[in-house]
């Protein structure tokens, strides 16, 4: 059987989503003088689910969630900082899709 298309999700497949979230948010908080005493990921998952309840672009979901995490820890962050991880990961995913397409075509 010959396949014409191969598809898969990026987060958790091409990108170590959990580690990326924890690294980005940890860096963001530390940069602003906050060292979280509890794990961020469970809080992140809850807040992201709330953000996803409305229909909006995923970039906006991540931005809002990062800003809410910061607020949860008593600080605020600029929008540009909140979306840096998404923009970086989106570019990585785009490059990996190009690499995967090349491998399939070979």
Mean pLDDT: 79
Work out the radius of gyration. 16 Å
Broad shape: elongated
How many helices? 4
Helix content: 55-70%
Low-confidence stretches: none
Helix and strand composition category: mainly alpha
Question: Could you explain the architecture of this structure?
Answer:
- The protein has 106 residues and is an all-alpha fold.
- It has four helices and no strands.
- It starts with 16 loop residues before the first helix and ends with a helix.
- The model has no long low-confidence stretch (mean pLDDT 79).
Which features does this protein show?
106 residues, 4 helices, mainly alpha
Topology:
Elements: H1 17-31, H2 41-52, H3 58-72, H4 79-105
Helix pairs in contact: 2-3, 3-4
Short overview:
The chain is mostly helical and 106 residues long. The protein has helices at 17-31, 41-52, 58-72, 79-105.
């Amino acid at each position: 059987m010959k396949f014409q298309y191969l598809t898969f999700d990026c987060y958790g497949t091409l990108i170590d989503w959990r580690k990326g979230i924890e690294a980005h948010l940890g860096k963001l908080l530390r940069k602003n003088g906050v060292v979280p005493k509890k794990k961020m990921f469970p809080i992140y998952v809850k807040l992201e689910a709330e953000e996803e309840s409305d229909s909006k672009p995923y970039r906006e979901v991540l931005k809002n969630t990062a800003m809410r995490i910061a607020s949860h820890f008593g600080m605020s962050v600029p929008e540009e900082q909140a979306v840096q991880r998404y923009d970086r990961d989106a570019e990585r995913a785009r490059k990996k899709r190009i690499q995967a397409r090349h491998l399939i075509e070979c």
